[in-house]
Design a protein that fits this description.
The chain is 31% helix and 15% strand. Helix 6 packs across helix 9 (248-275). It has 17 helices and 20 strands.
């Protein structure tokens, strides 16, 4: 039921105004017929109307698979070997083979292909759904699936009942426009109708499965309202060709995908059945009014609580600060924490460095489906005198300078003034002291042995002593100032007239992929030690240093860089896609970053691009 009954990331009234702007663009079929005109008018890089990855800046703050978990098995099914996929049954295999034989032929018209496909779908999915066909002149997809369970009295059967699956077909590739864009605009129109008829956005993100049938090719996409209309492909274009005798794995993949679709539709129907009968609360539920888009998994930790959720850093990074959230298993009383969503995480390194006081507590790492992980850890923020190194370095290292997409310390005017005062206190000769503390932290972390297995064993000191022999030592992979926090002894005199700020989104400081922190003692002066007020006249000292972002971290000799590296980062020699991460790389990257260097990696095809592509590539 949770598939649809989740809060929108914007107030329903604001969402409705947005939908009205999108649908005012004209009939979807006309937009699909002139995609270039639609892109020029409505998909500008700074404010695209549809978050469909066209252009690259039209990215959703939350991937559709995390917004609608029941769609994850479809993506897994189309990618053999991915966790979450299931093997097709005999009926799925035979239907896939029959579909390939039928759709690979020629059809006299688009209508003929649609009718044939519709006939086959009805036989495959049975009577569990009402399958509608658009009639000539109707501004609707070619095929729509609805559920009788979600039916509401007086609603138009096609236009005001939630669609579970919408299909747009083209007789052959290149004929009558872009099926994907057309389907996305039909979705936007349908969500607008659902909001007007049922006020559904107060309790649902209106998830839907979209399918494009383009000649002998079929693709499934997921759609949902996450701030705006989000649509992302779940599968590549699947061949509908009779390949069972020469490339049978392609037909098996099609069968596996169809079986996953068969399993997802009932979950979408259950969600709408739960969302529709209940009248939305006046003004929407309090948590539904949040402007923070978040994965469905995170809502479980805040839905039934008087919790607040704060986005840390850039929206697309998916790092959140939760206060008064759901208590975590095994951590009684812990209700405030950072939650980070990523697709890989150096859990072993994080736990080992935490045991050696080079990282904070790692509370848990939970698989959330679709290859994603939810990483829970403690928050280190301004309330405890933690600030990003990138914000307090005397030289101005800005996110733009190294291709970061976050904000170095954007906590408001009060926080900015404190950061500026700290920066000023480490100018001149004291800059070297700050740099030395940071270097010492990284060197100390590099010396920590990493056990060959996790599960809490990293906290056993006896195992730690033998771990190097069994495991190795750790590497970080991205030891830049954006991924380093510093804890100071007190506020500088220039900030004494300012009230100490509340926790602000400083943790991510341009490297929101990291939401963990490794700590290193750095000896403070005697004036800043015992029980004195954080507002003192004595010189500010560094008490600890914290490394964040363990996405790439692992054991030296086995951990490797990801396929895509931001070209504006000053990567040391030997760093490249798939290359082994080395401790010397960590140290060299830190040194280059402290000097304020910017990468100059340019490929021949980038020469006339003004680094436009680099600006769109995330550093992780």
């Amino acid at each position: 039921a949770a598939a649809a009954a989740q809060p929108p990331a914007a107030p329903p009234d604001a969402a409705l105004r947005y939908l009205q702007r999108v649908t005012a663009a004209g009939p979807p079929s006309e937009a699909a017929g002139d995609v270039n005109q639609f892109m020029t008018r409505h998909q500008g890089p700074s404010s695209p109307q549809l978050l469909n990855l066209r252009p690259a800046t039209a990215a959703s703050p939350v991937p559709v698979q995390l917004a609608v978990p029941c769609l994850q098995p479809i993506a897994a099914a189309a990618t053999p070997g991915t966790a979450g996929g299931s093997e097709p049954e005999e009926r799925d295999l035979y239907f896939a083979m029959h579909l390939c034989q039928s759709m690979s032929g020629a059809f006299s018209s688009e209508t003929a292909r649609v009718k044939r496909f519709l006939h086959m779908l009805r036989h495959y999915f049975g009577d569990a759904y009402v399958v509608h066909e658009a009639q000539a002149g109707e501004r609707l997809p070619d095929i729509m699936f609805t559920s009788a369970r979600a039916a509401t009295s007086g609603a138009h059967p096609k236009k005001e009942q939630p669609w579970l699956l919408a299909v747009v077909a083209k007789v052959e590739p290149g004929k009558s426009g872009d099926a994907a864009l057309q389907n996305q605009l039909y979705y936007a129109e349908h969500v607008q109708r659902l909001e007007i008829a049922h006020g559904l956005l107060a309790s649902s993100s209106c998830p839907m499965l979209l399918a494009e049938l383009v000649g002998p090719n079929l693709r499934f996409s997921g759609a949902a309202m996450v701030v705006r209309v989000v649509c992302q492909p779940l599968t590549p274009m699947l061949n509908l060709l009779a390949l069972q005798h020469c490339h049978r794995e392609q037909v098996v993949t099609l069968a596996r995908t169809l079986a996953a679709v068969h399993g997802a539709l009932p979950k979408l129907a259950e969600g709408y059945a739960a969302a529709l009968p209940a009248a939305p609360p006046a003004g929407g539920p309090a948590w539904g009014r949040s402007v923070v888009p978040m994965p469905h998994h995170l809502q479980e930790h805040v839905l039934a609580q008087q919790a607040t959720v704060q986005l840390l850093g850039h929206p697309g990074r998916m790092v959140y600060l939760v206060r008064n959230g759901k208590e975590l298993p095994g951590h009684p009383g812990v209700t405030s924490y950072v939650v980070k969503y990523c697709q890989q995480y150096g859990e072993a390194v994080h736990r080992a460095w935490a045991a050696a006081r080079y990282a904070p507590a790692l509370l848990s790492v939970e698989p959330v489906g679709g290859g994603w992980l939810a990483v829970f850890m403690e928050f280190l923020g301004p309330q405890d005198m933690w600030y990003p190194l990138s914000a307090v370095l005397p030289q101005a290292i800005t996110p733009a300078a190294v291709g970061s997409s976050g904000s170095a310390g954007g906590g408001g005017g009060e926080t900015d003034a404190i950061v500026q005062a700290i920066r000023a206190s480490f100018g001149g000769a004291r800059t070297a002291d700050l740099h030395a503390c940071v270097r010492d932290a990284l060197v100390g972390a590099h010396r920590v042995p990493i056990p060959s297995s996790t599960g809490g064993q990293a906290e056993d000191s006896a195992l730690m002593r033998d771990a190097k022999r069994h495991g190795g030592v750790g590497v970080h992979g991205d030891a830049r100032p954006f991924n380093i926090l510093v804890k100071f002894s007190h506020l500088p005199p220039a900030a004494m007239q300012r009230q100490q700020p509340q926790p602000a989104p400083l943790l991510a400081a341009g490297a929101a992929p990291g939401s963990s922190a490794a700590t290193s003692e750095c000896a403070p002066s005697s004036a800043s030690t015992s029980g004195s007020s954080p507002l003192q006249e004595a010189p500010v000292q560094v008490q600890r240093v914290a490394l964040i972002d363990f996405d790439w971290a692992g054991v030296e000799g086995s951990a490797r860089y990801p396929p895509f590296l931001h070209p504006a980062v000053p990567w040391p020699p030997g760093v490249g896609a798939g290359a082994l991460i080395q401790q010397v790389h960590d140290r060299q990257l830190l040194e280059a970053s402290l000097r304020g260097e910017v990468g100059a990696r340019m490929w021949p095809w980038e020469a006339d691009a003004s680094m436009g592509l680099g600006a769109a590539i995330a550093s992780d």
